[in-house]
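Researcher: I'm preparing a figure for a lab meeting and need a structural model of a single chain. I don't have an experimental structure, so a prediction will have to do for now. The sequence is pasted below. Please return the structure as tokens so I can convert it later.
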Amino acid sequence: MDIRLNLVELSQDSHGLGGGTVTVTNETRNDRFMLDLLPSLVMLERLLGYYFQEASWAYFYIQEPDFMSRWEKFKAEELQSSVFMSTISVLIAIAIRHMPTTHTILTELVDGVDETRDELSVRYYEASYVIVPSPRLASQTDGMDMIELLLAR
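Model: Understood. Here is the structure written out token by token.
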């Protein structure tokens, strides 16, 4: 799998939202760069499961059967979409935000990391802006994925 994306630099105060700046350069990074921003595939699977079981009622924009079908294609390296990866990042941020601080997934995720649940959630939310900082950077074939990403954000 080799996804290409424009590399962005976020100013420290931006947090991906207003008040900061996003600079798009001509450099590209492959999917390894993007995957390094996220937990392991096993942990992603668990976090997405938690999202659809416990948090999707409040964020009903993403339909589980369709999303999980694309997730299976992504894991099998049949789907190459930075927009989909960015959506995953937002969904796991939402899942983490809704988890009790004592949940086993969360305790495993923060083990050895000096971050609170909320800081971890913000980090993964911000990663979605590093992966796909602007709708203009998505390909034409990412239409529905982009709509889901924007609704989830």
